[in-house]
Amino acid sequence: MTFTLDDLAALIKSRRNDSASTSYTKTLLDAGMPKIAKKFGEEAVEAVIAAMAGDRAALTNEAADALYHLLVMLEARDVSLDDVLRELERRTNQSGLAEKAARGAKE
């Protein structure tokens, strides 16, 4: 397999210049954050339901939908996949429990 999340992020970014009549991504971006966030939330919930049901095929499909909608949401807020990956990399430099405790102290 050669398709990556970087490929998907680049495709989503390129859709900013498409026509909404031919691009679902452009339709979402034009609709704004309330629509984008709602779609991401719906897909995330559907992934949870599929996981709880033990439905591997459905979970695969819903995970793909959730990843796509997450990347659209990031694009809409000008947050790159690289930004997210850098944050994940930073977090791997300490234990998950220590990282979570540090976040709790900030809130």
Q: How helical, in percent, are the residues? A: over 70%
In CATH terms, what is the fold-level topology of the largest domain?
Helix Hairpins
The description of the largest β-sheet is: none
- Mean of the pLDDT scores? 93
CATH superfamily of the largest domain: MazG-like
Please, how many domains? 2
Strand content: under 5%
Strand and helix order = HHHHHH
Pick out the low-confidence regions. Answer: none
Tell the overall outline: globular
Q: Count of DSSP E strands?
A: 0
Number of helices: 6
The end-to-end distance, rounded to whole angstroms, is 41 Å
CATH class of the largest domain: Mainly Alpha
Chain oligomer state? single chain
- Give the second-level CATH assignment, the architecture of the largest domain: Orthogonal Bundle
Structural class from helices and strands?
A: mainly alpha
What would you report as the Rg, rounded to the nearest angstrom? 16 Å
